[in-house]
Amino acid sequence: MGKRLKTMVMKRVGLCDLVVGAATVQGPAIGGGLGEYLSPVLAEGEEMPDLASPITLYSRKLVSYRDAMVKADEEQQAALSRLDEVRKDLAVPEGRLRGDILSLRATCQGLWDDDKVSSLSLDFNVAQEPKPLVRQAEIIRDRLRDPEVELVSVRWVKGPQDGKEWADELDREIEEMRPLLARYIERRKQLDTAQVRKDQAMEEFDVQFIRITRLLEATFRVAGETELADRIRPTVRQLGRDGGQREEPAAAEQPEGASDADAETESVTPEPESGTSGEQSATSAA
Description:
By secondary structure, the protein is mostly helical. The protein has 9 helices and no strands.
C-alpha cells in the first residue's frame, strides 16, 4: 500500500511542477498582457502595479503545499521502514511460537476428542499477526495450567497427561516476544499517525491546487495566453486518488477551440466507490 500511496504523491508533484513551471516561465509575459488589458481603465495619474508578482506568489504558495505533502510522504515511508525492521526481528520467535502451537494442536487432536481440544482453545486457526498470536498463546497456556482441566487421554496414551511442560514452553516463547511486540505496537502507532498526517497533507494540497490552478488559468486567459491556459486546465481533472471525484465542479464553458471529445478525453474514469460525488450530487439536485 505504501508504494501505491507514494505513486499518488509523485503524480501530484508532477502536476504541480507543470503548473508552477508554466507560471514561472511565463510570469513576466502574463504580467505584461494583464497590463495591456487593464491599462485602459487606469485613472489619470495612476500607475500600473506589478501584475507579475501575484503569479509568482501564488506559485510559491502552491509549492509550499507540495513540499508539505512530500515531507509527510517521506515521514510515512520512514515509519513504514522502521516497522519493517521490527517485523523482521519478530519473524524468528513468532515463527517458533506459531510452530509450537500447531504442533501442540496436532498432539492434542491425537490424544483427545474435539471437545477437549476446544476447551484448550486449540480448535481455531493460528493468528497471523504477532499481537493476536501472543494473546492466543497466553489463553492456551492458561488453559493448560487450569487445575480444573483434566488432560486424560481417550485414545493412545492411558492416564492423565501433565500440561505444565507444554505451558512452560509457551510461556518462555511468549516472554521472548514481549519486548519485540511492544516495539512493534509502538511503531505501528507511529505509522498510523504518519499515515493520517500524509492523508491530511494530500487533501490540503488537492484543495489548494485546484483553487490556485483555476485562478492561474483564468489569469492566463485574461492576459490572452489561451494556449497556456488550455495546457494547465487538464491538470485539475487529472488530480485525485479517486479519479478526480474530489475535485470541485468544473467550469461550465470549455476552453476556446475545445470540442466535447477533448473535454471527455481530459477526464479520468472514476474508481467505483460508495457514496455520490459532488458533481453527481449537484446534477441530482438540479
